[in-house]
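User: Protein folding is very new to me. Would you mind checking the protein record under this note? It all follows right here:
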Amino acid sequence: MDLSEKQLLQTDLLRKSHPLNSAEDLDALVESLAGSRVVMLGEASHGTHEYYTWRARISKRLVEEHGFSFIGVEGDWPDCYKINRYVKNYKDAGEDAETVLRNFNRWPTWMWANWETAAFTEWLYGHNLSKGKSQKAGFYGLDVYSLWDSLDAIINYLEKEDPEAAEVARRSVHCFEPYRGEDDGQKYARATNRIVPDNCEEEVLALLKQLSSGAPQHNHDPEAAFNAEQNALVAVNAEKYYRVMMQPGPDSWNVRDMHMMETLDRLLNYHGPESKAIIWEHNTHVGDARATDMARGGLWNIGQLAREKYGKDKVSLVGFGSFKGSVIAGDYWGAPMEKMPVPEAREGSWENLLHQQSPSDRYFLSTDLVKSQRLKRTIPHRAIGVVYHPERERYGNYVPSIIPERYDAFIYLDQTKGLHPIKITEQLQKIPETYPWNV
């Protein structure tokens, strides 16, 4: 891109930007999202304070002003269901949000066990207190990783409701016991990739069929049967995910996003034909994969799948990004969390263009962006995962994207900082364990 073309592009961006200094500045954005059945709010990392707080502000308004039914997040179903029970004030659901979130033990714990999520959880609890049973807004996890926790939840449920069925389920679950451990299913994955594979597919399918045949309802938790069925579905798809995760190609990614899409669809059906969902996930899941180089690799994601299923006019995809700052992440999978620097976005990237245009927080609506043909080009767009190496930033961490086609709106935050984990490690002693719940 030569200098004159870059200047024209920045002029386009300046004309189409909306300032973002307070919640009131969200009026036009919220209005544009309100008519959708599904609103997906992204993030460029899983460890940035501002992504969580701005998603919370948008979500509050969609719930309060436009009746959205639930929030679905990139988290494990069993852990997030504990938040759902708390915000709906079910019996024995926990004393406060911090207590509930301290139960999140699977790495990366900071992704949901943080004060930003605690603040939103307490707000949602307070919002629901004055609502009838069917009007309470929920909080659910869409992800597929929780094989062991979901299997345990099924057994615990059946032991209370149907001891005979629990014994049958225990025999099914026994197939997995040799692989139980703290390696997130990798031991099972390795076993299923031997020359003579050893897998438990038939057992989990039988378990799902058993749960789907009908389960009694809890008076103290009207969603208990749905929760049990969903845990069985997680077990089925987690088994499939771990079975293919060691294989090259897109299969494991696609199994995961298809599961998240299936869970979203189940939740919308469960909440009724007028239900509306808010989704919190990484940009790589939210932004339509067809507008990125992911498509060439055979990858799809929940943003694409939702647009295809419900129609583009019923799904709003909102991306997030920043120019520089800090982030909570790990040096490798399972590593202690650290507060890491996020260097300035590289030259020619989407984030660098926005910073050069005007280093201030603002947002863009796709309806504005698509009017500029100069913006309908492939531009590198930063993506930071839970494993991050800032020193390698210039050689990776960017997804080539056509921004107006990938998102319906984009929120740009020039400088951001790492979020505030509830569980503090030695590397994070400078982060206080008390954080104002003001998101």
The two ends are 39 Å apart (CA to CA).
